[in-house]
Design goal:
Blueprint lengths: L1 H18 L3 H52 L1
Helix pairs in contact: 1-2
């Protein structure tokens, strides 16, 4: 996914650079904007992964508690 985002950022940078007068400065700004956007998307993906991991851990704890309660009732 990172490669796709970086490719899109690269294409956007090239597109912006070819359209205006001060190409080098604008290309650098577009590159920095693209890098910032990729970092933002990575941050969102990490937060989602952390959230999923926390939910899985909570579910595992709940399952363990249910098993322990069922074992106590069976005894």
């Amino acid at each position: 996914m990172k490669k796709v985002l970086l490719f899109v950022a690269f294409v956007a940078t090239i597109g912006f650079a070819s359209c205006t007068g001060n190409k080098q400065a604008e290309a650098e700004k577009a590159k920095q904007d693209s890098i910032a956007e990729v970092a933002r998307l990575d941050s969102i993906a990490k937060a989602q992964a952390d959230s999923i991991a926390a939910a899985a851990a909570a579910a595992a704890d709940t399952v363990s508690e249910v098993i322990e309660e069922a074992a106590a009732v069976v005894k």
